[in-house]
């Protein structure tokens, strides 16, 4: 069992760090759980500098992280790749003193904190941005991916959740770089297949750990940014932090695809020929049979360099971007209030009653079409455990397979070919919450 609690300070060599509180709910720690581990925002007491501390789940703690981080340092000089400058905690090396008290910190990574909100947060909140802002962040995003491709590298999981945008400066950074492709990097044990809503049909079958691994997904993100000023585009986005649903990807008769093409062709701030060339590149990636057929990322950057720039000091948006408060861990205190800090925080709670709220699935990542994958969902502070139901009929008329678990993830194994419909709900000490929205997963190969 982990011994570390969010209210504790940690000492790495001679430096002491404290866990930062959530910016919108001070009783919660700034600590987000992801597929491979938990990222804490920590502050170094000596100079008040803020860092990210990524503590991996046990099955992802590998000595290879030391060599990987050494190789990733070569990419830290590229735009948007600050997280590649990192130190790994390990026996006999950096921060080894902390392992006596907290052995779960083995191979944890300390790296610069990239401030901002994820593009996932912007989409999920349907936050409005001005056309010139969309153009500016699309240009900066294209510069990051073009620089990576020019270095024969790829992030390999370009998605809305892995792109951070500073609300005040529009600076952009990529995060979660452990599965990057480069000729100098070793192939990961679990080849990235991308994130639903951003992965190419080839990637879903074969993975996208290759030099062209970002071409499709990054192109989708760039077009999302260019079109996000449109009310119609925002209204049609999914609840999972993407514009396209997995079932809509690369469907030539998709109404949402056609709407995005039309929106690209109507951006008044861009010259007509530039609009047409951007729309054409979008059509190319959408109709491509392989990742190699997609336009190079440098071509997106070349086109967007011709677009007008946003004025210095332009903010991302004046709309509220909702913080996913239920995804953060509570900071424990001997004087803590008996009631839930989340339900006490009115702006982020639909109700102040003690009822169990609906759970929300996270986007499915690294699904290769086979019958083994991991479901993840945002935790609820009031839930003590969760029930996951697997149905084989969309109307839930069959008898489901129900699994009880105490964590916010569940590995599902050995499903034969077919369509499956998953729901999850939280269970407290006194009641069971409502079922979540349905997550449909198709297994198409053995």
Folded structure, characterized:
This protein is an alpha+beta fold and 446 residues long. It has ten helices and 18 strands. 22% of the residues lie in helices and 19% in strands. Strands 1, 2, 3, 4, 5, 6, 7, 8 and 12 form a nine-stranded antiparallel beta sheet that branches. Strands 15-14-17-18 form a four-stranded antiparallel beta sheet, with no helix packed on it. It has helices at residues 64-72, 119-125, 131-150, 201-206, 215-227, 231-235, 255-264, 272-287, 297-304, 341-344, and strands at 10-12, 15-19, 21-22, 25-33, 37-44, 50-56, 87-88, 109-112, 117-118, 163-165, 172-174, 328-330, 373-376, 385-391, 401-405, 409-412, 418-427, 439-443. Mean pLDDT is 86; it is low at 325-354. The chain folds into three domains: 10-112, Phosphorylase Kinase, domain 1, CATH 3.30.200; 117-304, Transferase(Phosphotransferase), domain 1 (Orthogonal Bundle), CATH 1.10.510.10; 354-443, Immunoglobulin-like, CATH 2.60.40.10. The protein starts with 9 loop residues before the first strand and ends with a strand. Strand 5 (37-44) and strand 6 form a beta hairpin.
